[in-house]
Design brief:
By secondary structure, the protein is an alpha/beta fold. Among the domains are: 6-64 and 164-224 and 240-249 and 389-405 and 421-450, FAD/NAD(P)-binding domain; 260-373, Succinate dehydrogenase/fumarate reductase flavoprotein, catalytic domain (Flavocytochrome C3, Chain A, domain 1, Alpha-Beta Complex); 454-567, Fumarate reductase/succinate dehydrogenase flavoprotein-like, C-terminal domain (Methane Monooxygenase Hydroxylase, Chain G, domain 1), CATH 1.20.58.100. The protein has helices at residues 6-10, 37-48, 85-95, 102-122, 162-176, 241-248, 276-279, 293-296, 306-318, 339-345, 347-356, 418-440, 451-466, 473-487, 494-509, 525-549, 567-570, and strands at 23-33, 53-56, 73-74, 136-143, 151-156, 180-182, 185-193, 196-204, 209-220, 253-254, 259-266, 283-285, 330-333, 366-375, 379-380, 386-388, 394-400, 405-406, 491-492, 558-559, 572-578, 584-590. The strands form six sheets. Strands 1, 2, 6, 7, 8, 9, 16 and 17 form an eight-stranded mixed beta sheet that branches. Strands 11-14-13-12 form a four-stranded antiparallel beta sheet, with helices on one face. Helix 2 (37-48) links the parallel strand 1 (23-33) and strand 2 (53-56).
């Protein structure tokens, strides 16, 4: 596979909207949208397979949200305590509240040790134990012997900067293998011809032109959409752009109701206080000084799963045991830990709380509250990272990986330190699948998208640029965040979700009244803000619609009006499409148990306690 000359792609025949915007045509074998851990891993592995790879990103790669992943990456190495990848599978499926696809979980956990060895070979500077092996720490919800044993040390770490170290190392390796990075490009829409993805369009914010990317494979790795909530641990760039591109292409998103709240977001700002702190011995207390998690999770305590702890914290506040003038948050104590441990293993926690909360964590407790952290839902894929449609059919030429994707290995609640593992395992799987298809002669033919497809991918931008409304994007943005946080948070019910949906749809209808005064494309921040707002509102609708339709409580999705888990009727994935007008189509798909050639028997739902 080689690049195609621009003149061969379009024969210099402009479409109607290509004459409206100055365009630039770029061709490659594989184009990755997003340059976080998943995107760069896929790009690197594909380049090592001999493909011409372009990685397109709206920020510099080292500003991707992967840098915020602090605590570690799971793998059953057994460097500190005995471990087994089968135990890792059990903990992951239990953590998912039995909604994860078990064949996908098996694929991820079984390949985890090899993924760590791959990262080590590339150069990730893992912390080391006294025995010289990769350091591993305890993380929440993980244990030995299929939940019967004690906590296992499974999270491989680089102090508390694991994501940053992995991203930096992968980026350097990708440059070495000639991956081309095109920065400051905002992805707009997929180029779809008769159900086949031919590429996508983007705004080159430096040059002020529309880039039209053509490739045999487009890999979406654009991360999550945590910015739809007011208080979150996400970077400002986490607006789910790839998810919205998929929706506008008429394809579904999966399990959007499952939004994880991290228990220890720094109070008032939401910044992440890594779970690694509790893994090293930190614990939560209420206004009475009680270690309250022992009431809610007698066995695991502060190392229970994240959804369990977040709900426990909400209950403590609701029952009047919160701290502060408003009694609306709780405290995380690290001061009892040895200062050498804090400096060596949690240096970023100390620095973060000192800068943003004026707290010396070695002496005083840290004010914390649950903060939106991770989206379990996203673009549905199979274990080869290929995007699948509403009926389960593969979409030719299109893949998705990382937090943008829903394979689903996280189900209703992600196990801590499985996010970085997801990026690495399925980033590599995407590249390997394309190589396999090349060997079998099954790669989609790389041809130019039709002029109709190009116009369809530019019509939204054209309409937005033509608007002469009276509303600034920031006004709708704050309304969306407020509605999602107030009515679709840790606890939900039919009435609250109905109120939330009404408000979100009202805001969505007001998109036609946006005021974009600046009409150029060069660093038009108002335009980018509007585009991100459109993307987020589509996902907010998808989240609320899915939450409304799941009439049970499971994992991160807790319904006060349906407090129990309904295994008989609701052991299904949610699928929802949202079109440009906000219209929805909702469907479900059965959760997959282990495949026929699996080394394990299906893990059937059971009571989930910690």
């Amino acid at each position: 596979m080689v690049g195609v000359a621009h003149s061969q792609l379009y024969n210099n025949i402009p479409t109607k909207l290509m004459t409206t915007f100055k365009t630039n045509h770029i061709s490659s074998d594989i184009t990755v949208i997003g340059a976080g851990g998943a995107g760069i891993m896929a790009a690197l592995q594909a380049a090592m397979h001999g493909f011409k790879v372009i990685c397109v990103t709206k920020v510099h790669p080292l500003r991707s949200h992967t840098v915020a992943a602090k605590g570690g990456i799971n793998a059953a190495l057994g460097n500190v305590t005995k471990d087994d990848w089968r135990w890792h599978i059990y903990d992951t499926i239990k953590g998912s509240d039995w909604l994860a696809d078990q064949d996908a979980v098996e694929f991820m956990c079984k390949n985890a040790p090899e993924a760590i060895r791959e990262l080590e070979k590339i150069g990730v500077p893992f912390s080391r134990g006294d025995n010289g092996k990769i350091y591993q720490r305890i993380y929440g919800g993980q244990s030995a012997d299929f939940g019967k044993g004690e906590h296992v040390y499974r999270a491989c770490a680089v102090a508390d900067r694991t994501g940053h170290a992995i991203l930096q190392t992968l980026y350097q390796a990708a440059l070495k293998h000639n991956v081309k990075f095109i920065e400051n490009n905002f992805a707009l829409d997929l180029l779809m011809d008769d159900g086949v993805c031919k590429g996508f369009t983007s705004i080159d914010m430096d040059a002020g032109v529309i880039n039209i990317f053509s490739s045999a494979y487009t890999i979406i790795a654009t991360g999550g959409y945590g910015q739809i909530y007011k208080t979150n641990t996400s970077s400002s760039i986490c607006t789910g752009d790839g998810n919205a591109m998929v929706l506008r292409a008429g394809l579904p998103l999966q399990d959007m109701e499952f939004v994880q709240f991290h228990p220890t977001g720094l109070y008032s700002s939401g910044f992440l206080i890594t779970e690694a702190a509790r893994g090293e011995g930190a614990y939560l207390v209420n206004s009475l000084g009680e270690k309250f998690m022992e009431k809610y999770a007698p066995r695991y305590g502060d190392l229970a799963s994240r959804d369990v702890i977040a709900r426990a914290m909400a209950m403590e506040v609701k029952e009047g045991r919160g701290v502060g003038p408003k009694k609306d948050h709780l405290l995380l104590k690290l001061s009892h830990l040895d200062k050498e441990i804090l400096q060596k293993k949690l240096p970023e926690v100390l620095e973060l709380v000192r800068k943003f909360a004026s707290v010396d964590a070695a002496k005083d407790a840290i004010p914390v509250a649950p903060s939106v952290h991770y989206s379990m839902g996203g673009i549905p894929t199979n274990t080869n990272a290929e995007v699948v449609d509403m009926k389960g059919g593969v979409v030719p030429g299109l893949m998705a990986i990382g937090e943008a994707a829903c394979v689903s290995v996280h189900g209703a609640n992600r196990l801590g330190c499985n996010s970085l593992l997801d990026l690495i395992v399925f980033g590599k799987a995407a590249a390997d699948e394309i190589k396999e298809k090349q060997l079998l002669g099954e790669i989609p033919q790389k041809t130019s998208a039709s002029r109709t497809a190009i116009d369809a991918a530019l019509i939204g931008l054209n309409n937005l640029m033509d608007m002469k409304g009276d509303i600034r994007p920031s006004m709708l943005l704050s309304g969306m965040k407020e509605a999602m946080s107030l009515h679709a948070g840790v606890f939900r019910d039919e009435n609250e979700l109905a109120v939330c949906e009404g408000k979100i749809r009202e805001l969505f209808a007001m998109l036609d009244r946006l005021d974009i005064k600046e009409k150029g494309l060069i660093w038009n921040n108002s335009l980018i803000e509007a585009l991100e707002l459109q993307n987020m509102l589509m996902q907010a609708i998808a989240t609320v619609v899915s939450a409304k339709n799941r009439k049970e409580s499971r994992g991160s999705h807790y319904r006060n009006d349906y407090p129990g888990r309904d295994d008989e009727n609701a052991s299904v994935h949610s699928l929802v499409t949202i079109d440009r007008k906000g219209n929805e189509v909702y469907n479900t798909r059965q959760v997959r148990l282990f495949a026929g050639n699996s080394e394990m028997q299906p893990l059937l739902p059971q009571e989930r306690s910690y």
